[in-house]
Amino acid sequence: MQDTLNYIQENKQRYVDELFELLKIASISADPAYNQDVLDCAEKVAEHLKNSGADQVEVCETDGYPIVYGEKIINPDLPTVLVYGHYDVQPPDPLDLWKKPPFEPYIEKTELHPEGAIFARGSADDKGQFFMHIKAFEAMMKTNALPCNVKFIIEGEEEVGSKSLEGFVKNNTEKLACDCILISDTHIYSREQPTVTTGLRGLSYVEVEVEGPNRDLHSGLYGGAVPNPIHVLSRMIAKLIDEDGRITVDGFYDNVLVVSEEERAEMNKLKDNPEEFKKSIGLEGVEGEKGYTALERTSIRPTLDCNGIWGGYTGEGAKTVIPSKAFAKISMRLVPYQTPDEITEKFKNYFEKIAPDNVRVKVTPHHGGMPYVLPSDTKEYLAAKKAMETAFGKEVLPYRSGGSIPITAMFEQVLGAKSVLMGFGLDSDAIHSPNEHYGLFNFFKGIESIPLFFENYAKG
Amino acid sequence: MQDTLNYIQENKQRYVDELFELLKIASISADPAYNQDVLDCAEKVAEHLKNSGADQVEVCETDGYPIVYGEKIINPDLPTVLVYGHYDVQPPDPLDLWKKPPFEPYIEKTELHPEGAIFARGSADDKGQFFMHIKAFEAMMKTNALPCNVKFIIEGEEEVGSKSLEGFVKNNTEKLACDCILISDTHIYSREQPTVTTGLRGLSYVEVEVEGPNRDLHSGLYGGAVPNPIHVLSRMIAKLIDEDGRITVDGFYDNVLVVSEEERAEMNKLKDNPEEFKKSIGLEGVEGEKGYTALERTSIRPTLDCNGIWGGYTGEGAKTVIPSKAFAKISMRLVPYQTPDEITEKFKNYFEKIAPDNVRVKVTPHHGGMPYVLPSDTKEYLAAKKAMETAFGKEVLPYRSGGSIPITAMFEQVLGAKSVLMGFGLDSDAIHSPNEHYGLFNFFKGIESIPLFFENYAKG
Prior knowledge:
The structure is a homodimer. Chain A is of the alpha/beta class. Chain A has two domains: about 1-200 and about 370-460, 3-Layer(aba) Sandwich (Aminopeptidase); about 200-255 and about 300-370, Alpha-Beta Plaits (2-Layer Sandwich). Helix content of chain A is about 35%, strand content about 20%. The first copy, chain A, contains 14 helices and 20 strands. Chain A has a six-stranded mixed β-sheet with strand order 1-2-6-3-7-18, sandwiched between helices. Chain A has a four-stranded antiparallel β-sheet with strand order 12-14-10-15. The two termini of chain A are about 15 Å apart. At the A-B interface, strand 11, helix 6, helix 7, strand 12 and strand 13 of A face strand 11, helix 6, helix 7, strand 12 and strand 13 of B. Chains A, B: It is an enzyme of class 3 (hydrolase).
């Protein structure tokens, strides 16, 4: 193992340089204008896998963006770890809030990252993280330290709901057969308190449309006598959450797993400083479901958020219009045992129910995902915990994240294997926001932890 | 007079051709990208005034877009009519809802316009309408029928609040001295029921901003534990109007002129078919302030409308973000004796008052305008009524419009003259909307009515 760690130490600068090349590709899966960049990125990932020593490397076509595959089978009798990651990234807007262009990576020191952090869209989510696995694999190969088999699937549609992945996995169960899945697409609690993510929330994402008059109207001539779809939509959104912060959708909480007082006490040990939390995002006060801590609200409780709203005139100056339509994007984070189909259906029914008679509403589902839990007594969890404890020199705790990686549930169902969410980002990495970044400390700790995980897991 | 009407009859086709040239200029004052088009349009208007026989034609510079001036003084002892119009137009978006490009005028027959209507941005508001005055003036000049003095001011900032007009009028009170102001920038009740507009609503227009977290956040990691500015803004908008359709801003109705039951009964004689009203804009049901008819809601009662809303991700696909900020444009239509300064101030105080402590809100005033009333026993009203009765061959009624022409109050204050709102459009012209149009019938009836107005007014 020491050889491997030495090799990593000697190649740090090259690893960063190579990651920079990957970050320069604007692989925005949500926007068709970037189609070619996403395809180029897939080719680049395949090239890296090959160069690192993987066999059978293939850019597998799907109905959407390709999935990059590679493997190293050293002995069919040994366990197999399937590494999953995604090479697509979130849209970077609002662009004007980036200090430098989102696809021109650079390193800058910050208060949390005195060694410097890599700033670029995708640096933490997920290029910087899946690339750690390719580089750790390279280090194990170069130092003859790979203790078991490894397979890679790096997809290009994670940010738009992994539309092609399930079909691909179902059609390739033999090729992808494995004992566990290893994913770095989450964050640790803090540098001082490393964690392994043991729970993820699911997701239901819909777009809603409210149509009033069948054309835009002059607000002077019609104002006061017709339903204004912006007002109607605002009133409907206001109704979705009550004064106690509870979601009003009929039956929304029916299947929510009630977490025991014991477990809640345990998880609240992690509790950070509420003042620091507010300060870090510039808030005077927080809000949320009554009776739960901020940590609980973002992990063991389901939530509902408008992610976008638009309607009417939004340009410069003033236009006195009553628009025909107003729109919103609304997502709900789910916990065990809610399912996206169930919640999307319940939302649709409720939204239609609360719509006044004088408008027409439409609810269009986007992608969804199941919630996920990894028990902390599993071999997978323990291998990750021990690996990170060695790398960080600190005790590692289990942690439930508020985010969603919908495919973990699917992997378990189709491949019969548990996913280990060994992510190395920080909460403050600004993923999905302007100025996304990934600490060099985190990047290298990740590369060091991965061979240790393989060692523990192969032994265990 | 018959000579003048004959001249008009013989030149109809040329009038339409000339108007088409004017409509091809994209004089969008709200959007700086169209700066040169607005300036070009001013030059074109000046050229038309000159060619029609006006003296002292001038493109007068202002701090904003120029005001085009021209006059014909035949005898200083005779009365002077000041014609006002505007050559700027509303932004045409949403562009994809136009059947043909907004600045490529064409004629098409419709159910309401069997003779055809001119489709183009600005056809009714206001190029097609002020151009009637230039052509009627040309006809009177060519047939030696101008019975009194006339002055023209055609401005280029009406759609953005006439920012430079007041200063210009104040600095040129001698040049603009007149006995009445004649404006065609409104509509008649219907082809069968011509009307003169005797009341206009005022306007207060603000932009609001709600800021929650100081940066965009991942809705999975933060959702449920922070104030989402879209939700907060939605709740605040929902609070602005109560269940009876009344505006909740403190003191909003304090200065509202209470219209007598008698006058309300009189105005409701005009009452159209509510089913037709709903059908014309594709609505199943209407809404508004309790206790008032649709006609009253859009004329003698003040209103509040969101004209635009935006925040978060509004592109294609799904993005799981909690935005830092959400925005809305909100306008209020005012009635006598509300004032825009008073109402803007009251709105600002109320909006700040209802904002929860955990967000920061900002209210930025755009332009405003005073409400206006022209009593129906004035010489100005009676000259217009009689002119239109001759041209249409029908009885003409007074009509209060819900729209705003804020400058009428200013003209009265600075020039001491009443404005006559002799507009010829139809409610269904889709001004401020896609597929704006202006009936050929209306265009020609307007050109015929104007010399009749001059005759009546000069005699009166």
